[in-house]
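Support request, please re-run this one:
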Amino acid sequence: MRMRTSAVSAALAAAGVLGALVTAAPAQADSIPDSLCGGVIDVDYCLWYNSNQKGGWTATYENIPDWGGAHPWQFSDGGQGTNGVNTPVKNNAASYANSRDDRTGVSYFNSNYAGASDVAPPRDKGNLSKTYNNNASFRWR
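Re-run finished. Output below.
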């Protein structure tokens, strides 16, 4: 009986550790509010005109070889301030958020995914540094 009690205790302890690990994982996801990328989460890479996710914004779920291509992207009013609204995204972004759980987003200095880059791991947000106001393309990896 004592061995069975020890085995049950060990199993419960292991389940408690696993339960803590499972519940700890989403804590990182909590740093990206549901409304940050326009209310669409887990599919978008977002850019803002101002630092700290402020001002006009845009979001994409696909690779963008040139933000200023045939139909240049512009910042929209997403409720985080109106600075930069209707301004071209190319060479005007200051901050980002990656709301995906499974992909890393990369903002590039040049079109066609070339030059210096800022890397955004899954569920990350911050200010651009290497491509601050010099962003020309974006790709998932």
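The CA atoms of residues 6 and 87 lie 66 Å apart. The mean pLDDT is 80.
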